[in-house]
Design goal:
The protein has one domain: Cytochrome P450 (Cytochrome p450, Orthogonal Bundle). The chain has 17 helices and twelve strands. Keywords: Heme, Iron, Metal-binding, Monooxygenase, Oxidoreductase.
């Protein structure tokens, strides 16, 4: 006989009509972090809308793997269709499976090894340019760097700084609009000719124009390219027809947006921690000086940067960039003894999961050595910066290689020193980024200087 379903509690502090809107608006990170003490599944409300939060790694694993067929990507990903209606990051069902199979070869480990040289030659001059710049807005610099890496490696093009800024501002505008619309879903307001909506539409036009130029150049010079855009242009549907122009535009736009933002904020947090921890910085410098030689960088070279990689892993844990993830039950389903209704909106937070003291000793301490193999490790399902199951980010190898390489190259050439100012705090928008982080790039007086290969 089946046990009676458990009804998860609402978080305390619910106010008639507005629900938990006030604490959510005041500090959404602290609000979600505080929900853990109320159980593995807990609910909150925004106005009349109820949202179910999953706090347990076991239940998350169940939802994302064995019962994934009962869930769609949910409200946030619906709003991210601003970047492309049916692009792979937001596609559902058979379309998602077909596009994933099409794109997967471009992110195979062997293929990523081939991107290393491109990553290096793209990043190196950008690091060199810091010498003539004053204090850096580090998040912006990292966004420009990772955006250029994605465009160079996957699209065979690199914009100048002005064009890169225009693309970056458009991405930021669309991401901000997607989160705002997901947290306060009022579809009617999205269609009104308000200044904010006009800004969103203009950002979309800038993105489409930039991507459209890349595609047009590939069409005009097909023999000159062998990259992801070429792959999409040569792809055929099951009936033998080429992909529609809109589909190709959406896929390239989605890759550009998704492929750069999360790595950029991970690197921003990593160098913020190094700026506060000279002991960690010294260890990083020692490793890169020993490993980086005049030989071309490869994936094998990167595997020798073990401390560098642990810095990346710890940054992904403590400052999980994709801090909020949504799902929606497509049919009635039981999860951990709780009956979820069809249409129920669900959220989970890698940020709060990765800071759970029951899973991570001293979780608020930035400790890259927690990933040493001789140290006790958290359960596999408790560390999921790239998701899990069939929706796990297929670009995780690319992102980890990119973050490790950029960290090592910067450390071999520069010391990033914090500029005095307000305390840096995490801000939960579409990604988890610092409130403000300005740093100066000082040349290193010791260590091996590595030039572009």
């Amino acid at each position: 006989m089946n046990a009676a379903p458990h009804v998860p509690p609402y978080a305390p502090g619910r106010v008639p009509l507005i629900g938990h809107a006030v604490p959510l608006a005041r500090d959404r990170l602290a609000f979600l972090q505080g929900l853990r003490e109320h159980g593995p599944i807990v609910r909150f409300s925004i106005g009349p809308k109820t949202v179910t939060v999953i706090n347990s790694p076991d239940l998350l694993q169940e939802m994302l793997t064995t019962k994934s067929r009962h869930f769609s990507k949910g409200l946030l990903f619906e709003k991210l269709k601003l970047f492309g209606k049916d692009a792979l990051p937001v596609a559902e069902g058979s379309r998602h499976l077909t596009r994933r199979r099409l794109m997967q070869p471009a992110f195979h480990r062997r293929q990523v090894d081939g991107y290393i040289r491109t990553m290096h030659t793209t990043v190196d001059p950008m690091i060199a340019a810091w010498q003539s710049m004053g204090p850096l807005d580090l998040k912006t610099e990292m966004q420009l760097m990772t955006q250029n890496v994605v465009m160079a490696a996957l699209f065979s093009t690199t914009p100048d700084r002005e064009s890169g800024h225009a693309i970056l501002e458009s991405v930021d505008t669309l991401f901000a609009a997607a989160l705002r619309r997901a947290l306060l879903p009022l579809p009617l307001l999205e269609r009104l000719p308000t200044p904010g909506n006009r800004k969103v539409r203009q950002a979309g036009r800038v993105m489409r124009a930039a991507v459209g130029e890349i595609i047009a150049d590939h069409l005009a010079n097909p023999e000159a390219y062998d990259d992801v855009v070429s792959l999409l242009l040569s792809a055929r549907d099951q009936d033998g027809a080429p992909l529609a122009d809109e589909d190709i535009l959406s896929e390239v736009t989605g890759l550009l947006a998704a492929g750069s933002e999360t790595t950029a904020v991970t690197l921003t947090w990593l160098f913020h921690e190094l700026g506060r921890r000279p002991d960690l910085e010294r260890r990083l410098h020692g490793e890169v000086d020993a490993v980086l030689t005049d030989e071309p960088l490869t994936m094998r070279s990167l595997t020798r940067l073990t401390f560098t990689r642990r810095l990346v892993d710890e940054s992904l844990r403590m400052y999980s960039p994709a801090w909020l993830v949504t799902r929606r039950a497509t049919e009635a389903v039981r999860l951990g003894g709780v009956d979820l209704r069809a249409g129920e909106d669900i959220v989970w937070s890698p940020y709060t999961l990765h800071r759970d003291p029951a899973l991570y000793p001293d979780p608020l301490c930035f400790d890259p050595d927690r990933w040493l193999p001789e140290r006790p490790q958290p359960p596999k399902e408790a560390y999921i910066p790239f998701g899990a199951g069939k929706r796990q980010c297929m670009g995780n190898e690319f992102a980890l290689a990119e973050a490790t390489l950029i960290t090592a190259l910067i450390a071999s050439r520069r010391r990033l020193r914090p500029v005095p100012g307000p305390a840096v705090r995490p801000v939960g928008e579409i990604t988890l980024h610092p409130s403000a982080l300005r740093m100066t790039a000082e040349p290193r007086t010791h260590g091996r200087r590595r030039e572009a290969v």
